[in-house]
Amino acid sequence: MLLFAIALLILAGVLAAAAAQDNIDATATRDIFEDSAPSSDPNALIGTIGAPFTNGSGVQGVITFSPESGGPGQVNTMTISVEIHRGLKKGFGFPWSIQQNLVGPKGECSRTGDTLDPYGVHTTANYACQKGNPNAFQATCALGDLSSKFGNLNITEENGSFSGKFSDPSLVLTGANAVVNRSLVIHQPGGKGILACANIRSLSMEDSAAVGGATAHTILLHGSLASFLPAVLFVGFALGSP
Length: 242
Description:
- The protein has about 240 residues and is an alpha+beta fold.
- It has a domain at about 45-210: Superoxide dismutase, copper/zinc binding domain (Immunoglobulin-like, Sandwich).
- It has helices at about 1-20, 25-30, 135-140, 145-150, 205-210, and strands at about 35, 50-55, 60-70, 75-85, 95, 95-100, 155, 160-170, 185, 195-200, 200, 215-220, 230-240.
- A five-stranded antiparallel beta sheet has the order 8-4-3-2-11, covered by helices on one side. A three-stranded antiparallel beta sheet has the order 1-12-13.
- It is globular and about 40 Å long.
């Protein structure tokens, strides 16, 4: 109780000092906490690019793409994070791939086209992607052939969930061969048709709610309190999780 009382006294002192300032910006103090506005800088999308699968597709979850710096003398890479919450069947392996085109305007997975392969690697008669060898991906694998690079999404959980991370230095978010504005497809076991598809794009708060995942929300601190407390607080919370 003593510590709680001291904390209240300190907070009261901070608030009193802030209120005493004569040059407080009226706009800044209108709302002490204000949601951060989306940035107009396209680079701000990097790190939040993904394919959201909603219940409407029968599969719920999200697959994100985050660029990672390899550091001095190291190759940059792309981290692919898979978080499927439900919709796949235990005991089966589901092929997955990045397709050339977007999903059709009415959700038609058939409009996604062929696997992304700008270098024509998959067209060779002796196509042999070197699975598990990231240094050889660009030379031996179609860019979007994720199953050949990492294997199928093999489901071992009763609820059909899958979680995993993969590293792929051959994928990029910008340029002619970018994965953005393509689609990600989960195929039926054995490659017999498409089970679910989703566009790869910038994710939103609404996407997080729809896929049943978690997201980080940024709160900016404005006004006179900014001189006493940290300027930015990061708060993570789950949306739509059962």
